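Thought: the user wants the 3D structure for the chain below. I'll pass the sequence to the structure tool as-is, report back what it returns, then summarize two notable features.
Action: structure_tool
Action Input:
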Amino acid sequence: MTRSLLLSNVRLADGQPVSVSIAGGRIAALGAQVEAQLGGLVEDGGGALLLPGFVEGHTHIDKTNWGQSWYRNEVGPALTDRISNEREWRKTSGHDAAAQSLALARAFVQAGTTRLRTHVDIDTDARLRYLDGVFSTRQTLSDVLDMQIVAFPQSGMLIRPGTVELLGSALAAGADVLGALDPALIDGDPVASLNATFELAERYHKPIDIHLHEPGEVGAFTLKLLLDRVEAMGMQAQVVVSHAFCLGALPERERDALLERIAHLRVALLTSAPPSRPVPPLKLCRDKGITIFGGNDGIRDTWSPYGVPDMLERAMLIGMRYDLRRDDDIAIAFDCVSNAAAQGCGFSDYGLHVGARADLVLVDAQSVAQAVVSRPKRRLVVANGRVVARNGELVDAV
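Observation:
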């Protein structure tokens, strides 16, 4: 059983000095006059800034090369080039989804991520092999990392017969969320593709997280079809649209009409804030009440050599992509990898309040904005009430 813990001499984002009492993996008390429980552990925070554990809202830990030798990327520019190359490489290289997902997940924890949503490839070549590898990682780190797994048809669904059935098997086996991918440009039939997706979600009582890379008017058409199904099937607050590049490229009138429906149906949006693609309008989405949050997407894989498992860096990249310069605006970028991400993914009991799961990060920074910009070494990471990293290094038990 985890011993009680007191974090003393820490500061909230508003500068208020507090202590945090942790018992049973939860925040038991938070305030200026909190004392240690009898026999409990005490950690002096040294005046560090107290942040909630970070949330990775969209990544692909099953396909990473993290910690491995350099992958020479010579892939063609099209989305289908990357999909085909990756599928062949994973089939022939001996890539181990269990070992690699564990290595990347541990690196996430080391840098302060305590909640994570990962998309895992389901296809007719690998079937459920990659899923089984990530299931193993989830079990290994279950005490410290709250992981949601998305069953994701990376190679397409309708264009590869048998994939629908495999997705159903993945959901039955324990995947938390049903994924989908570009119903028009990959599957070639957005109506049939979305029908199959929503029928699976209804059958297995699962939420949906769809990759929508489709640009401009094509993306808008698919998005309208998706929103129609959300409304018809009563799936409000159960759907995430990841990337949603089309929302960054449409005329304002058409874009705003879509945003109004997205807000009304409580559909959430995910952005990795890529520098080379259109992105949904962050502040406008928030003003309309839309939950928009952040994630890394792939990290060091055959798609891209970029990315690190550090959500403060992702927050910084969100801030740079959206030209967030004021301290209060940079705090919005941090919200994208903390509270908004927890809300968008449906992670419960999150935050800095009594009763929340005790997922906490201490950094030497004067403010949230400085933490995002400077990305200091994590002085302490607490996950589910346990100290899991100290001074930027995992403790032995993790």
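Final Answer: Structure generated. The chain has two domains: 5-53+351-394, 54-345. The radius of gyration is 21 Å.
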